[in-house]
Amino acid sequence: MKAMILKQISNFGENKNPLELVDLPIPEPGQGQILIRVATCGICHTELDEIEGRTLPPQLPIILGHQVIGRVAKIGLDAGRFCLGDRVGVAWIFHADGTCRFCREGLENLCPHFQATGRDVNGGYAEYMVVHQDFAFSIPEVFSDTEAAPLLCAGAIGYRSLKLTGLKNGENLGLAGFGASAHLVLKLAQVMYPDSAIFVFVRNAKEREFALELGAAWAGDHGGMPPQMMRATIDTTPVWGPVVEALRTLEPGGRLVINAIRKEETDKEAMLKLDYPAHLWMEKEIKSVANVARADVAEFLEVAARVPLKPEVQEYPLEDANRALVELKERKIRGAKVLVVNGEQ
User: Residue 58 falls within a domain, yes or no?
Assistant: First the structure.
């Protein structure tokens, strides 16, 4: 099979082609596992964190990719949940132990033995991958393979972030950053909270225009002052500066939810500008989002299919994964980026 592999940690400033296209044996499904012929795989900012070493894979080389859509090509021993040819998806959650107190409480995203697809095990930047049947998801027919891929992370983690805001209908929502996840959160919030105004904070003028096209009430730079204060804001940026600015625009008792697995260190001095009375006083809260649970993915797919909630997508062939990642690094974004591996099936 063809696969794009990461052999070593590198910086995009020095290496614009961190992934290498290689031929590898097709993996065999083990007990309880299924083999998936990959159709599409979404591209996520977390891949940049892996490549540049902010969230390290435990071993190299590794196949990245955790927004995988494909068809069941082979079934392992005792794997009877799916049939050959069924369309399935794989998300960031590849495995959790199911026995720890977090798993027992429905918080398997906090499991100490959590394994991530495309970081701890090989993911979907390849023509085939294996996964345990219990960590694969049926994909609603309303979505094409390309549309479905971003739903498995950008959508699911956005859904978890939105739930964690505690937002009520009619309360203002802010979005700091406007990439794959945030544009789906905007669309979802318009359905879940139809009377809420959504304000978008993003540096790129084209992304501000895109947000207004999708129905944002206001769009401005991170340092801008919106016409109203936010009850809650979801930050999806890779840096620290927008966090400080988002706290400034929260109303008393407001909550900031940070949806990022890591923050880049290039502007860590921004945190030194944190001013307690301006940014944190009046019982404001900060909450991070860690990983995603299977329930988040399953619930979100059901909600998204009912709407139906379809992402804006840009397609790339598998061999152009490096180009897509560079564009993501350079903030050349309009919705979600998706690798087309084996095409629509």
Answer: yes
Adjacent-strand bridge partners of 62: 6
334 burial (CB, 10 Å; 0-12 / 13-18 / 19+) is middle
Helix or strand (DSSP H, E) at 87: strand 87-90
pTM greater than 0.90: yes
Provide the domain count of the chain: 2
Model pLDDT for residues 143-185, shown as the tens digit of each residue: 999 999 999 999 999 999 999 999 999 999 999 999 889 999 9
Q: Are residues 145 and 160 in the same domain?
A: no
345 falls within a domain = no
C-alpha to C-alpha distance for 123 and 63, rounded to whole angstroms: 5
Would residue 181 count as lying in a domain?
A: yes
Summarised one tens digit per residue, pLDDT across range 224-281 is 899 999 999 999 998 888 998 999 999 999 999 999 888 876 666 666 677 888 888 8
Q: What are phi and psi of 189, to 5 degrees?
A: -65, -35
Instruction: List the domain range (segments joined by +) for residue 211.
Output: 156-288
Q: Are residues 121 and 46 in the same domain?
A: yes
What pLDDT digit, counting tens, does each position of 298-320 carry?
999 999 999 999 999 999 999 99
